[in-house]
Amino acid sequence: MRSGYRAMVKCKALEILLIGLRSYFEEKAPQNYSPPIKKIIDYMSYGYMSNIPLADFAKNLNIPFRNLSKMFIKEVGMTYTNYVQKRKISESCNLLIESNESIEFISEYVGFSDSKKLRQKFKELTGMTPREYRKSHKSPGK
Q1: Whether domain 3-137 has CATH 1.10.10.60
Q2: Which DSSP state fits 28?
Q3: What does pTM read for this prediction?
């Protein structure tokens, strides 16, 4: 096989893996959510790093916090905190594969207070450290 073709196949395999990881972390399709939960999920697609508490969404949506929390768990299948952490880890996986940024940079970028917290949550959710994940998923050409 030509080396260019081999690199292209590896790149496509990584792309398929990334799509699989993203779908793993998104439990349901957004169109299945009620309007308040859909607003939160839509915002969190890009605003996960801002660490907005669910209480702020409750105020903004004019829904009692306890009701919104129960609604989130019922519709999404996990707590808001767990959802946000999974979202951050999902984006961390993407950045570990697609960039050469340091783990410290990635930790700050996705909204963890420090790299130690990222490492702990990453290992808990993926079974690997960020460094192990990058090494096992990064193509040799990158």
Answers
A1: yes
A2: S
A3: 0.73
